[in-house]
What does this fold into?
Amino acid sequence: MLCSLGWLRSRIEPSFFWLPQQNAFLVLHADDMALAAPSQLIETLQGQIETRVALRWEDTLDDQHWVKFLGCQWRRLPHGFESRMPVECYQYVIRGLGLLHAKSLSTPLVNCAEFREDSSALLEGSMIGDYRSMVGRCLWISRFRPDIAFLTK
It folds into this structure.
């Protein structure tokens, strides 16, 4: 549908579209969409897309403010985009893992002369879901914090 309006689909990332003559970008993920274009073209581009499909538009990406999209915050820069993880996401993980009053430690982990078998009890009930949620959140954060990627894997 977007291609019929002149948008070009990325060969590398099929959910990314570009309208070169207007310097506009569009990212689709399931039912989430982010549009980035020069401010004077936003309404025109939205109108063109709405001729093909009914949409409820969220905030557009510009250089004035951060926009939440797919759990991250985004903004447009003159020559690209910038993204960051919201502080609340880090706080959620810190609280969920009980690390609110923990001491910091350099990563990767301290060298161990030998690995020991873990004899702790297996997780049960809601603890399984909590564990998976924390690991998933840490994996998501590791895009912005590569220093925790080793610990998360």
Summary: Strands lie at 8-9, 16-19, 24-29, 32-36, 67-69, 72-77, 80-84. The CA atoms of residues 95 and 101 lie 9 Å apart. The first strand starts at residue 8 and ends at 9. The chain is about 25% helix and 20% strand.
